[in-house]
Specification:
The chain is mainly alpha-helical. The protein is built from seven helices and no strands. α1 packs parallel to α4.
Length: about 150
């Protein structure tokens, strides 16, 4: 019997569970509500479902990469993006520091794009699955930048 289902489950639990724990412990409060936000700022209720779907995709892609290309540059980028992803929320909301969060999210942009580039030839489905994630992170970068400028 293969351990593939357990690997997928472990990665999904790691990513989705980690995201939920971080989100629950750094709920946007009065400080965030008081910030000036750009016109393209989505409603707050949208973030949780979007991130939940993206975390599921990130977990599946991580498991695929782990099973087939464990020692690859793609796997290194995958772990880097996860660390940076998990760091952004505590930096932005926990420390209330949009400037430092901007540095984190720019590094996250690079890590996600790096994963796509490193996976493109060896695992095209995983690279393609990360495209919506890259689009959302780039949008979040623009939002972080606009909040930084407006405040």
């Amino acid at each position: 019997m293969s351990n593939k289902p357990l690997v997928y489950l472990a990665f999904i639990i790691l990513v989705l569970g980690g995201g939920l724990v971080i989100g629950a412990n750094t709920v946007p409060g009065g400080w965030y509500a008081s910030l000036a936000k750009p016109a393209f700022n989505p409603p707050n209720w949208l973030f949780a479902p979007v991130w939940s779907i993206l975390y599921l995709i990130i977990g599946v892609v991580g498991a695929r990469t782990w099973l087939a290309f464990r020692r690859s540059m793609a796997m290194r980028f995958w772990f880097a993006q996860l660390i940076l992803n998990f760091a952004w929320t505590p930096v932005f909301f926990g420390l209330e520091d949009p400037a430092s969060a901007m540095i984190v999210i720019l590094a996250l942009d690079i890590a996600v794009a790096g994963f796509i580039a490193a996976s493109w030839r060896q695992d095209r489905p995983s690279a393609l699955a990360f495209l919506p994630y890259l689009a959302w992170v780039l949008f979040a970068t623009a939002l972080n930048g606009a909040i930084l400028v407006l405040n």
